[in-house]
Design goal:
The protein is of the alpha+beta class. It is about 40% helix and about 10% strand. α4 runs antiparallel to α5.
Length: about 130
C-alpha cells in the first residue's frame, strides 16, 4: 500500500502540467503528482482511457476519484484554508456545479492559459513525447 495519494494528470497537456505545478507551489497538497504517461496505471487500478479523460486522485487504499472530485481531494489535502474549499466541492449542489465546470474546462483546455494545440488532440494522435 502506498503512503500517500497519487494525482494522475496528462503530462502532454501544458495547461494540465501548469495547473499541477501551481498547486504544488501554492497549495502544497499531500500527494505524489505524476503524468499518466509515466505512471504504472495497472498498479494504480486505472485504465489509460480514464487517465486520458480526466485528472485522477488515487488514495493509498486504491479508491479512485476523477475530475472535479479529484480536484476536491487535492484541495482537502492542501494546507491553509483550501480544505474548506475542497469540502464544499464534495457537497451538492456545489458538487454538481463543479462537475459541469470541470468538464467545461477539460474540453477547452487547449484554449486555457498555457494550453497548446496538443492539449486538444486525443493522446493516440499526439506525436512522441518530448521532455524538456
Amino acid at each position: 500500500m502506498r503512503k500517500q495519494a497519487v494525482l494522475v494528470y496528462d503530462g502532454d497537456c501544458a495547461f494540465c502540467t501548469s495547473a499541477v505545478r501551481f498547486a504544488e507551489r501554492r497549495l502544497h497538497p499531500c500527494c505524489e503528482a505524476t503524468p499518466w504517461q509515466f505512471a504504472d496505471l495497472e498498479e494504480l487500478g486505472v485504465s489509460q482511457r480514464r487517465a486520458e479523460h480526466e485528472v485522477l486522485w488515487v488514495t493509498p487504499t486504491g479508491s479512485v476519484h476523477g475530475g472535479a472530485q479529484a480536484v476536491a481531494k487535492l484541495l482537502l489535502s492542501a494546507r491553509g484554508g483550501w480544505p474548506v474549499v475542497g469540502a464544499l466541492l464534495t457537497l451538492p449542489p456545489v458538487r454538481w456545479a463543479a462537475h459541469v465546470g470541470y468538464r467545461l474546462i477539460a474540453v477547452n483546455r487547449h484554449r486555457m492559459p498555457g494550453g497548446t494545440a496538443a492539449c486538444a488532440l486525443p493522446a493516440a494522435s499526439r506525436g512522441p513525447r518530448q521532455d524538456v
